[in-house]
TrEMBL record, chains A, B:
Keywords: DNA-binding, Transcription, Transcription regulation. One of its GO terms (molecular function) is DNA binding. This is DNA-binding transcriptional regulator, AcrR family. Pfam families: TetR_C_24 (PF17932), TetR_N (PF00440). Signal peptide: none annotated. Residues 44-63 bind DNA. Residues 1-22 are annotated as: Disordered. Residues 21-81 form the HTH tetR-type domain. The lineage of its organism: Bacteria, Pseudomonadati, Pseudomonadota, Alphaproteobacteria, Hyphomicrobiales.
Length: 208, 208
């Protein structure tokens, strides 16, 4: 009974894909682009493998199936967004600057990671892996909480009116997230410039 | 050669569906509900016919295919939104009231026609029938133009600061449209109450 075992090990070794530098991220990058372009159903693992320049077996070496790739894009995008925005707001002083930092960094990350962001916004509600769902929820909650904290600090410090935190944070995230419906990267103005306009509008209000 | 002709007429008459009161609207109502619930691909014309309580032939009497039903929902929703919002704003006086009227009526229509609204927001970009696309675009443009006019009037009358019309109308429509991602009808507060909060926030701004 030792021969089959040996054969199995040998065939596993033969089937092992070549080492791809930064493979996981490259697979996720190309998958996000294909999902954004052709939709989730319109993208096959064969196309993804061809795009990355590896075999389908190499893809399976990193991800058990297409759905896990999809959910990994969502979590990675939220991680990146969270990190990028918190770095940007850390360097600001005062609630107005912090709000502008939050909004422009959010828009900036959206523009720079457009495909992943699109995949994240489309796919968030349809996630199935409970571990990934928990991770994504935690990241989203942290991101929203950071915004709520900026607003709460502004109110506490007297820089902002005693506005409702829920309404304000929801209004701001709606403006930023709805960009996905009309903004196209690389066509003129940067997303962050639109976000700065929104921020100025929110701060000053409409009333003369 | 007269007999086949007669037979054809007779068979057509036999195949003619019974008259359904307000059939077109009933088909669109049920289709919107099914599309919102199970998605476009997940809804068959057989299910739709069963839901309306008619035969598939009866559906085909009104619409050539599923895609036309989908696009008819989009156009009907935009027509209804346009009509509801323009009626509401006509009864207001002054830019602040007009803005509140626009925003609460938009939210109200969204809540009352939730399934159609969902279908409209999901399907708008994927329309194929050029006549329907032109109708939908005209209605959407008219709706947006009505909002821009309210803002422009407010600036001209000195009620609003000299804010940028594009940024302001885009910000307001983003808040209203993003409701589709978090608001569920019939669970507590009305959509119009949230819209009124947004309006108050927009008018007063954040700065103390």
């Amino acid at each position: 009974m030792s021969a089959p075992g040996n054969t199995e090990i040998k065939s596993k070794r033969q089937g092992r894909p070549p080492i791809i530098p930064d493979a996981r991220n490259r697979i996720l990058d190309d998958a996000a682009r294909l999902f954004a372009q052709d939709g989730y159903d319109g993208t096959s693992l064969g196309e993804l493998a061809a795009s990355v320049g590896v075999t389908k077996a190499a893809i399976y070496h990193y991800f058990p199936n297409k759905k896990e790739i999809y959910e990994a894009i969502i979590v990675r995008t939220l991680e990146g967004l969270r990190q990028h925005v918190s770095q940007a707001t850390m360097q600001t002083s005062g609630p107005e600057e912090a709000l502008a930092g939050f909004m422009t960094a959010h828009a900036d990350f959206f523009e720079e990671h457009y495909d992943g962001f699109l995949t994240m916004l489309v796919g968030y509600g349809g996630m199935e892996n409970v571990v990934m769902i928990a991770e994504a929820q935690k990241l989203r909650d942290d991101h929203e909480q950071a915004l709520r904290q900026i607003i709460a600090d502004g109110v506490a410090q007297g820089a902002f009116r005693p506005i409702d935190i829920d309404t304000t944070s929801r209004a701001i995230l709606s403006m930023l997230n709805w960009m996905v419906r009309w903004f196209k990267p690389g066509k003129g103005r940067r997303a962050a410039a639109f976000a700065q306009d929104y921020c100025d509008l929110m701060l000053g209000g409409l009333r003369s």
